[in-house]
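INSTRUCTION: Work out how this chain folds

Token vocabulary: learned, describes local backbone geometry

RECORD BEGINS BELOW THIS LINE
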Amino acid sequence: MDPGQRRDVFGCQPRSAPDRSLLYTGNIFRAAGPWLVKGLLGNLNFAAAQPPGFDAVDNETAAAQAVADAHGIPFLGIRAMSDGPGGLLRLPSFPVSFLFYRQIAADNAARVAAVFIQCWVDA
């Protein structure tokens, strides 16, 4: 895997702040308890008797829209699924399906965005 692909999949290399020790933990220990109770365990839905009414969850676009809304900036999110249950190839779920489908999903999202922009310009 070339370095460009590695950066695409795993993000940039983390760096420590110049004025912080490598042992600096910030508020991780204070925040871990509420995160475990409200975030991790609260999202497991042990009591859910039926599957949720949606096929995908997309927190990143929702977060970007919340910021745009807070600043009064118009926002349109175009996303394509790169992993999930099922699929014609019956691949194992994340990360295997993501690594296989990520480029296809990116190409599909780019095509939709290009057509949208062209239609918007022509309108």
